Structure to design on (252 residues):
């Protein structure tokens, strides 16, 4: 009876074992992380080189996805004032702000039926464009705080800043300066606006004025709070689709 210890390994087994080792080597040389046969075909166990390549693959995967996880977490923790920017125009009055022949970007500052619109501008003159207005005109309160952002839907215009007799319109033609005042409004209609197209009118704003005098934008404050109102139906009531809150944020 032959001695089993001295019995040579069957050629087929040696071939399988050699093929398993070669498969891993070829995959590694080809630049892939795990290819071919990663187990010893005789024992069925995962080879040490397979463990190394598997761990390396997991580390590379984690390194590649971590920035995405971090970005998603940071995005979710931001204030609601980072809502998607770049509105084409304000949602209620259809206002557009232009500067240096380019439309200024706009973004919603809050989630509300009465949104506040943020508009970044340079400390330079700008153009305000809006749909053709009716005989009621466009009324604009300009102030240095959000004092008049408290107007609500269905309020009546019996108190400043939009009450009868509260208008600041002192000239037949607009002189380019928005008058700053907590208790009154700038009135734009007729000769005080310019026609831009068949659909839009515009006004050119070069600065602000107050009881202290005129100030051009290079020397003006960093932020203006504008409340717009177009009383389309002439009922002296603030309907939700007739007024708008806008913050102009000036930067050098």
């Amino acid at each position: 009876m032959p001695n089993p210890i001295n019995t040579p390994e069957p050629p087929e087994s040696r071939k399988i074992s050699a093929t398993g080792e070669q498969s891993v080597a070829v995959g590694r040389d080809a630049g892939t992380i795990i290819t071919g046969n990663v187990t010893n075909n005789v024992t069925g166990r995962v080879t040490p080189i397979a463990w190394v390549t598997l761990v390396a693959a997991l580390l590379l995967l984690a390194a590649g996805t971590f920035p995405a996880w971090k970005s998603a977490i940071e995005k979710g923790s931001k204030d609601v004032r980072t809502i998607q920017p770049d509105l084409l125009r304000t949602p209620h009055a259809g206002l557009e702000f232009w500067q240096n022949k380019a439309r200024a970007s706009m973004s919603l500052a809050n989630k509300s039926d009465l949104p506040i619109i943020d508009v970044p501008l340079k400390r330079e003159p700008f153009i305000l464009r809006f749909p053709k207005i009716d005989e009621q005109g466009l009324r604009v309160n300009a102030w240095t705080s959000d004092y008049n952002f408290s107007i609500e839907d269905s309020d009546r215009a019996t108190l400043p800043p939009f009450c009868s007799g509260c208008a600041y319109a002192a000239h037949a033609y607009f002189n380019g300066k928005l008058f700053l005042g907590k208790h009154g409004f700038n009135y734009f209609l007729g000769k005080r606006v310019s026609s831009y197209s068949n659909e839009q009118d515009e006004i050119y704003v070069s600065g602000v004025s107050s009881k202290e005098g005129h100030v051009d934008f290079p020397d003006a404050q960093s932020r203006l709070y504008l409340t717009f109102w177009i009383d389309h139906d002439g009922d002296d009531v603030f309907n939700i689709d007739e007024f708008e809150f806008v913050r102009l944020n000036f930067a050098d």
In short: The radius of gyration is 35 Å.
